[in-house]
Amino acid sequence: MGTIRSMSLWVVLGAAIALIFAAIYMTFLYAPTESMMGPVQKIFYFHVPSAMVAYLSVFVLLGSSMAYLWTRRRVFDYVAVAATELALLFCTVVLITGPIWAKPAWGVWWTWEARLTTTLVLWLILAACLMVRGYATERDAGARMAAVLGIVAALDVPINYLAVHWWRGQHPQVFGPGKKDPLAPEMMHAFLLCMVAILTLYLALLFLRSRLAAAEDRAQSLMDRMRDS
Amino acid sequence: MNNYVYLFWGYNVFWALIALYVVFLATRLGRVGQRLDRLENSLSASDDD
Amino acid sequence: MTGPPASSSLPGFFRASWLVAAKDLRMEWRTYERLASMALFSLVVLVIFNFAFDLVTVQRIGAEKLVPGVLWITFAFSGIIGFTRSFQLEHRRDSLVALVLAPTDRGAIFLGKTIANLATVWLLQLLIVPLCAVFFNFDLVSVAFPMTVVVGLHTIGLAELGTLFAAIATRLGRGEALLATLLLPGSTPLFLSAVKCTEGVLKHQSLGDLSHWLYVATGLNLLYLLVALMTFEYVLED
């Protein structure tokens, strides 16, 4: 089993950081300022990829939860923990940068429109998932409960979005058919690079966090072995 | 000008959160690494007996 | 309690569920404890809502806008109390182990518990909805049938999710607080639909007008049932 000091992990993280710096350059110096909203629109380069990564992480959570319940192999639980925490992290980013963008753009910090509401509810469910993990006294029981919750949470995401969308609707449509204000090509380049940078960052963190979970589990079982011997 | 304030804080939030998480990971990784080393040493020591 | 042998057959499955539901309901019938505390709690919540919104606001906004939210929050919270109790009794006496060891499909246990919980909340609603009509001054009789359908349908989903999450919460040794934290965000789409439909009913819309949301609710009920049936055994596992 690779040690946590393995180089590859840190290489990935280093690459992610390098990409992020490139992304910053592109965002601020390469992409032109948007005419309507002004400079604050640039938050969008990090806000949207964060949202996409959060949803990707929920998807990873779904897959690893199902895999864990099916196979009971610990590795899936490690990935599930990592996916839950990272989904919560990026969800927090979205929920804070969103209002920071919204205030100058729409005039209010918050509106209860479809995507914001769904993301907030998602945040609550993810926080509950982590809480459940904390409450469990036996390792396996906690992993199982968290896996079940992870599945419910993941299934809830699309349903929630549809439901809230039918209920309200207001989010700015940047990508979509027939939008009136198309992105300038430089903006698209910057956006894509930011997307790649944040995705790489996510993968690096996922990797790291899973390894951490595995290492802590190993330490725990070694301690149990010592106690028993 | 007002706009830049929001932009500034927006980016700071992003960095702050990510950095906090990386620091959290790094500390825990360091700690568990030391724990594993100690445990493995004492286990191999007791195995040698 | 010797249940029917491995209810891999469909009739066996339903029979097992019915046995579990009947057991729970019979216990409830003897003491009324659960229903009584749920009813009292609901009453308290209704009264508190009266203080939460001042008279002018209530008159200005009107019953159709206010009542759906009030009703469904009341049902959600008293439901939470009821759902927690449905597992806590066994948890306290460790008879959950006995239930799990019985040769029945875990899904049947889930279905039985859900049916019992559902029946309890339905009974509660029979009391609370008319009371709400009195407190908030709306005409219930003219909308009795659509109201029954809407409230009854959405409660099914609430009971399904509530039972699943209550099992998780009890298994972890926690109670209402954890259940509330899990159930309320988790049932958001159902909640939305419930409030939307109840509002529509109070505005004298027909069930046909609300069919869109009713289909959503039915779909959600089915989805929650499927997910719970598939995952319940993992929750109860030891």
Compact description:
Chain A has one domain (44-172, 185-228).
The largest sheet of chain B is:
none
The count of strands of chain B amounts to 0
Poorly predicted residue ranges of chain B? none
Radius of gyration of chain B: 21 Å
Main β sheet profile of chain A: none
Mean pLDDT over the residues of chain B: 80
Number of helical regions of chain B: 1
**Structural class determined from secondary elements of chain B:** mainly alpha
Got a strand count of chain A? 0
Helix-strand topology string of chain A: HHHHHH
Seen as an oligomer or otherwise, the chain set is heterotrimer
Count of folded domains of chain A: 1
Shape of chain A: globular
Strand content of chain A: under 5%
Explained architecture:
The complex is a heterotrimer of chains A (229), B (49) and C (238). By secondary structure, chain A is mainly alpha-helical. Chain A has one domain. In chain A, 79% of the residues lie in helices and 0% in strands. Chain A has 6 helices and no strands. Chain A has helices spanning 7-30, 44-71, 74-106, 114-135, 139-167, 185-228. The relative contact order of chain A is 0.18. Chain B is mainly alpha-helical and 49 residues long. Chain B has one helix spanning 2-48. The longest helix of chain B has 47 residues, at 2-48. Chain B is rod-shaped and about 70 Å long. The N and C termini of chain B lie far apart (72 Å). In chain C, helix 2 (33-52) crosses helix 6 (106-136). With 238 residues, chain C is mainly α. Helices cover 83% and strands 0% of the residues of chain C. Chain C contains 10 helices and no strands. Chains in contact: A-B, A-C. Chain A binds chain B through residues 3-5, 13, 37-40, 42-43, 46-47, 50, 85, 89, 92-93, 96-97, 100-101, 103-104, 201, 205, 208-209, 211-212, 215-216, 218-219, 222-223, 225-226, 229, and chain B through 2-4, 6-7, 9-11, 13-14, 17-18, 21-22, 25, 28-29, 32-33, 35-36, 39-40, 42-43, 46.
